[in-house]
Every structure is written in structure tokens, then in C-alpha cells.
């Protein structure tokens, strides 16, 4: 298990190997006063049907309560479709929004996203839905890098550390899949 | 990311913490090439090439359009998903920067799942449908008969009264279908060493999603393109046949070769037959391969052509057949014809055996029953006295033969009462005599008893050297 402390929350990641395709696994996380239970499903080897969701622009200004409520509503609606996974086509939070670019606001934006993911993107029978993100222009420190061949990891620290994005310098891996345990 | 063999999603960074040009574009092309067998390749990246709010000529949109779109068009992409403009959008199918209903790529997006919305520019030539609505897309890939379908549904979770136009795409990835078919194409009916045992190999003419398969054979006389196998005749050479499958769909085409070994026919000499003359049980077993058939029939007839036994079997996993049967009538002295053949085959696939051994090495010249050694001949067995049997034999071969002469007295229920034997060396082309004595059989009813006389080469092998003779106990004339 690895942890990172990019924001005010702890992000823990666990790598599970040797799982069986097309199988539901149950997870129990004991807390001091209660325990959390959910399940996840591994992909089929040769599925005859795949359902997935594509969404983008899941951020909102500052601590806008309406935006927060809207995001949870949208995530719940996604979960109701019982997809195999969700692709997030960038802009999960605001890192570089003009005028609100202070640490507290950034932390609130990133943590809020994970909180909503954790609480809303779950099926009625308790299955967490994997998310597959790509970076948008608001997920890093600056919207766009100048032309150049090198991946600038420092530009998007939350995106890379909090999502445990599997990148190394000058390398972008092709197979990226996050199980979204959402343990914020 | 691959989700099963048919769905590949390529996540790209449209210039945020990585430049969309250079290495990134080179990696994209390499990845598109690598996953060509996938039915669906769907790139997704934040900034799209056909925006409906920002300017068409914005630098990052332009970079995506000039660097990535030509690769999408080259490598069979059908759908691209983007964000960034905070609206719901779907384009017409686009190719070469113009609408192309036949071969165009549909671009969907453009963000606006949660973030504050913007007003789309509906006047742009490529915009099929757009709306200032919170949205996401539900995509469903299904395998249908002959093709794969991707059903795309725009969803408006905060305005359920609004209905956008769902649409579906049919996979046009002919090369993907051809490559998948090539990977999955195997020949059945071969063992681990590629040897065919059946007289037919299934050579499919259709593959995955209606791909066409045609076949060529390096030896069509041995394996025809319709799958018929004709084994080389007995004594011929084994042949390795190269079967070449050409898999096509549209303009896509690949070939795949199979090496199949066809063994020469073993011939009927591979068949063995064992006859237990006491129990009248017959065992015939052998190798199917001399027949070139998966089914084998056995027919037993007497000399007059009356069917005594008939049975049919299919080959087992080891390519062997075995028949067990029992002759119920006590006429083992009769000649039986056993025919073994493949159903639907002509005479060349038949062979014949005789249940009698037709042994002629030794000829029994005369048999004399008497009441004493060299005594007077008798016509019936005497239950209270020894019965002497004098057997005169002639050796028809040039070799000296150690003959075992056996006399067995059976009761009316075919049970053995007495059995006696004598060994005699009969010189090549010479003659010999054997003397046997059946002891008294007090208490037995001899009315329906009988005596059989055998000349074997030994008790274990029971190979008959002469034709068996049989006598009624109450009438000792042959």
C-alpha cells in the first residue's frame, strides 16, 4: 500500500494482482467506529457487451454548493446506468482557475472531486465503478505547456499523484485503469 | 486501454502536461498500429479538433486536428470523444475536413458534464447537433451477428425532458476482423503433432463477422480444398500438406498456413483376430486408419451368406476399434467370413477373415477309436473302460513340427468332462502317430456327449495346425 499527501486528504492505493476476469470482489475497510463495504468487478476477457460512460468538465468555481450538488447528481445518474467503467475526458477539478488559485481552494477542489466520486459514483448494489481519466487544461498548474517533447509531470501534481497516474519521465503508459476506491 | 479484444480506448494529453506533438503523436501512431485487430479504437482527449464554442483555429485544437486526425483517418477510427467547450455536441461524420457519410469519423463532446455551460455555435459546417445542457454520453458496444455495434446515447441528467438523437455506428474495421479471424483460426481433428486421423477436415469458409476464407492445398489429391482427406495407399510415403487460408473482408486480406501430416494407410494387416474355440468368443481389433473412415462396420457370415453378426462403431479417441462377439451355434467347424469395412466405402476398404483357421500344416489322415492299444475299433464310447484313440498325421511342410494332439469330451451342455493330450514330433514331409486314452467316465450320460480333436502347436498359442474334428460319443464316425 502506498500513500500520498498531495492534498489535505490521504490517498491510499493498493495494487491487486492475480484477479479472475469477470468476477466481483468484495472489499471491507474497517474504521474505528464502523466498517465500509463495497465491491468491484473485473473486466471480462471477451465481453459481448460493454457499457461505458464518457464525461468531461466535472469542475466548478470555488466552493459553489450548486456545482457540488450538480456533480453528485450527474455522478449518481452515471452510476444508475450501471456502466463497466467511466472515462473522464479532462477537467476533473480547478487547479489553475484565475483568482482562486490558492492552496486552500485547490485542496477543496481536488478533495471535493474525490469525495463526490466516492459517495456518488457507486451502483445501488454497492459496486464501485472504475474511472479512466485524461488530463484537461484545468487539472494542472497551467492550462497548456509550450511545444516540447518532454512530459512535464510537475505541471499536474494532483492529477498524477492523487490518481496514482502511472507515468514516468518521458514515458506515458498505454494501459491506465483506476478502480476508484475513492478513499479520501 | 483494452477492454476485451474488440474495444480499445486511447487516452491522450492534448497539450496540458505533455505536448500533443512529437513523441506523443509518434506514440499514438504506434498504438493505433498495435491495436488494429480491435474492432473499435476510440481516442479520447480533452481538447477536440472540431470545437463548437472556441474558435476552429485555436492553436491546440489546430494541433490536434493536424497531428492526430490524419492518423485517426488512416487507422480506422470511428469515434473520438473530447471536452473543453462546456456544451453537448455531436458532429456529422468527417473525413478530410469535410462531411463524409460513408467513411467519416464522428466527434462527440464537448464537456459540460458539471461545469458552467456555454452557448454552442450551431452554424459550423460540422455540427450535427449541439445544446447548452449538462450532459454525458452512454456508449454500449455489442457483438451482433456479423458485425459489432456501438450505440451512443447523449444523456441529460438535469433536464430529463430533453432528448437528443442517439445514434449507432457499425464497425467498419475489416482489417480488424481479418486479423482476429486469422488469430482464432485453427484446424480441428489433428493431434498434437499435426497428424490428421479423420477422413475429413473442416475447412471453414466463414470467419469472424462474415470474413471470407478460401483454401489452397499443396497436395489437393491428399487433402482437397473441401476438406476431404485421401490417405496415401498402404506402403506409400506419409505426406505433409500445406493448407493456406486466405482471409478477406472488403479490401483487407491476410493468409495463414497450416502444416498437416497425413499418414499412409496402414492396410488391413493392422487387424488382429483372436478366437477362443472353447468359449466360441471372437475378438477382432485394430487401427481405424486403414479404412480412412471414422465409422467401421463388422459383418460375419457363414459359407451360405447367412449373417451371423453385424455391428457398427465409431472411432474412439485412440483411433482403435474392437469387436467382441460370440458364435452361438456349435458349428465352429464351419467357415466364417468376416468383413470389415467403412460405411459407404467400396470393396477396397474391406477385408476378410475366416473363423476357422484353415490350417493345413498337418493333415489328420485317420482317427481310430478302440477298446485297447491297437485293439478292435469301437463305434461308441464305453463309459466304464478306457477309450483308445489312434491319430495318424501327415506333415505337409518341409519343417519338423512339434504337434500337440488334444481330445476333449464334452457333455450335452458343452461342458468339458475329460481332456487328454499327447505330443508328437512329425518329421517334415513325413507322417506321425499319436495315441490318446480317455479314461472311464462312470455315471455320465453319453447320449448327447461329443469328442473334439484338435492339433495345435501348443497349449498357450493354440495355433491350429490341422482342421478340428468332432465325433458323437455314441457314434464315433466322423
In short:
Chain A has 3 helices and 9 strands, in the order βββββαβαβαββ. With 184 residues, chain A is an alpha/beta fold. Chain A is globular and about 40 Å long.
The quaternary structure here is heterodimer
State the end-to-end CA separation of chain B.
91 Å
Silhouette of chain B: rod-shaped
How far is the first residue's CA from the last residue's CA of chain A? 15 Å
Question: Radius of gyration of chain B from the CA trace?
Answer: 43 Å
For the secondary structure, the number of strands of chain B is 28
Q: Characterize the largest beta sheet of chain A: strand count, sense, and whether it forms a barrel.
A: 3 strands, parallel
Q: Kindly provide the name of the CATH class of the largest domain in chain B.
A: Alpha Beta
CATH superfamily of the largest domain in chain B: Metallo-dependent phosphatases
Helical proportion of chain B? under 10%
Strand line-up across the major sheet of chain B: 3-7-4-8
Give the number of DSSP strands of chain A. Answer: 9
The gyration radius over C-alpha positions of chain A equals 17 Å
The total of helices of chain B stands at 4
**Share of β-strand residues of chain A:** 15-25%
Count of DSSP H/I helices of chain A: 3
Report the average pLDDT across residues of chain B: 82
Return the structural class of chain B. Answer: mainly beta
Amino acid at each position: 500500500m502506498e500513500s500520498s499527501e498531495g492534498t489535505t486528504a490521504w490517498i491510499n492505493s493498493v495494487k491487486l494482482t492475480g484477479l479472475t476476469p469477470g468476477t466481483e470482489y468484495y472489499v471491507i475497510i474497517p474504521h474505528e467506529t464502523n466498517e465500509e463495504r463495497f465491491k468491484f468487478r473485473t473486466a471480462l476477457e471477451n465481453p459481448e457487451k460493454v457499457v461505458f460512460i464518457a464525461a468531461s468538465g466535472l469542475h466548478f468555481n470555488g466552493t459553489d454548493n450548486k456545482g457540488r450538488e450538480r456533480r453528485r447528481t450527474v455522478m449518481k445518474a452515471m452510476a444508475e446506468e450501471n456502466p463497466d467503467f467511466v472515462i473522464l475526458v479532462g477537467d476533473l477539478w480547478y487547479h489553475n482557475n484565475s483568482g482562486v488559485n490558492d492552496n486552500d481552494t485547490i485542496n477543496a477542489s481536488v478533495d471535493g472531486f474525490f469525495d463526490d466520486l466516492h459517495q456518488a459514483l457507486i451502483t445501488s448494489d454497492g459496486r464501485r465503478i472504475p474511472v479512466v481519466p485524461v488530463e484537461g487544461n484545468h487539472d494542472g498548474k497551467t492550462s497548456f505547456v509550450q511545444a516540447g517533447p518532454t512530459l512535464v509531470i510537475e505541471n499536474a501534481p494532483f492529477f498524477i499523484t492523487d490518481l496514482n497516474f502511472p507515468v514516468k519521465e518521458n514515458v506515458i503508459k498505454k494501459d491506465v485503469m483506476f478502480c476508484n476506491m475513492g478513499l479520501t | 486501454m483494452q477492454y476485451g479484444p474488440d474495444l480499445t480506448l486511447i487516452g491522450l494529453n492534448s497539450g496540458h502536461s505533455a505536448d500533443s506533438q512529437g513523441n506523443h503523436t509518434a506514440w499514438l501512431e504506434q498504438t493505433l498500429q498495435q491495436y488494429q485487430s480491435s474492432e473499435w479504437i476510440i481516442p479520447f482527449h480533452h481538447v477536440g479538433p472540431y470545437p463548437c464554442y472556441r474558435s476552429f483555429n485555436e492553436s491546440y485544437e489546430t494541433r490536434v486536428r493536424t497531428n492526430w486526425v490524419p492518423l485517426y483517418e488512416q487507422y480506422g477510427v470511428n469515434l473520438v470523444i473530447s471536452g473543453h467547450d462546456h456544451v453537448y455536441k455531436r458532429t456529422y461524420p468527417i473525413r478530410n475536413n469535410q462531411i463524409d457519410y460513408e467513411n467519416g469519423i464522428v466527434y462527440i463532446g464537448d464537456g459540460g458534464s458539471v461545469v458552467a455551460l456555454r452557448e454552442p455555435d450551431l452554424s459550423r459546417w460540422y455540427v450535427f447537433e449541439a445544446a447548452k445542457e449538462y450532459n454525458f454520453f452512454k456508449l454500449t458496444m455489442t457483438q451482433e451477428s456479423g458485425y459489432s455495434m456501438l450505440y451512443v446515447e447523449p444523456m441529460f441528467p438535469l433536464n430529463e425532458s430533453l432528448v437528443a438523437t442517439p445514434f449507432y455506428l457499425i464497425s467498419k474495421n475489416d482489417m480488424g476482423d481479418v486479423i482476429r479471424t486469422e488469430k482464432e483460426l485453427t484446424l480441428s481433428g489433428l493431434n498434437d503433432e499435426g497428424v490428421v486421423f479423420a477422413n475429413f477436415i473442416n475447412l471453414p469458409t466463414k470467419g469472424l463477422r462474415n470474413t471470407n476464407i478460401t483454401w489452397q492445398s499443396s497436395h489437393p489429391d491428399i487433402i482437397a480444398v473441401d476438406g476431404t482427406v485421401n490417405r496415401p495407399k498402404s506402403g506409400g510415403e506419409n505426406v505433409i500438406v500445406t493448407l493456406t487460408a486466405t482471409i478477406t473482408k472488403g479490401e483487407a486480406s491476410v493468409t495463414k498456413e497450416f502444416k498437416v501430416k497425413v499418414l499412409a494407410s496402414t492396410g488391413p494387416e493392422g487387424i488382429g483376430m483372436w478366437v477362443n474355440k472353447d468359449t466360441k468368443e471372437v475378438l477382432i481389433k485394430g487401427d481405424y486408419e486403414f479404412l480412412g473412415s471414422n465409422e467401421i462396420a463388422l459383418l460375419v457370415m457363414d459359407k451360405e451368406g447367412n449373417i451371423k453378426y453385424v455391428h457398427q462403431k465409431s472411432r474412439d479417441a485412440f483411433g482403435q476399434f474392437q469387436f467382441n462377439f460370440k458364435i452361438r451355434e456349435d458349428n465352429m467347424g464351419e467357415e466364417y467370413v468376416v468383413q470389415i469395412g467403412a460405411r459407404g466405402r467400396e470393396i477396397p476398404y474391406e477385408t476378410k477373415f475366416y473363423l476357422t483357421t484353415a490350417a493345413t500344416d498337418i493333415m489328420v489322415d485317420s482317427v481310430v477309436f478302440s477298446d485297447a492299444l491297437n485293439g478292435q475299433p469301437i463305434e461308441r464310447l464305453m463309459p466304464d473302460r478306457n477309450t483308445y484313440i489312434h491319430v495318424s498325421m501327415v506333415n505337409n511342410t518341409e519343417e519338423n513340427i512339434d504337434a500337440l494332439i488334444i481330445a476333449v469330451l464334452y457333455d450335452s451342455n458343452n461342458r468339458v468332462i475329460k481332456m487328454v493330450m499327447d505330443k508328437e514330433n512329425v518329421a517334415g514331409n513325413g507322417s506321425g502317430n499319436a495315441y490318446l486314452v480317455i479314461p472311464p467316465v462312470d455315471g455320465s450320460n453319453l447320449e448327447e456327449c461329443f469328442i473334439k480333436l484338435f492339433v495345435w502347436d501348443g497349449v498357450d498359442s493354440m495355433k491350429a495346425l490341422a482342421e478340428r474334428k468332432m465325433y458323437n460319443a455314441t457314434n464315433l464316425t466322423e
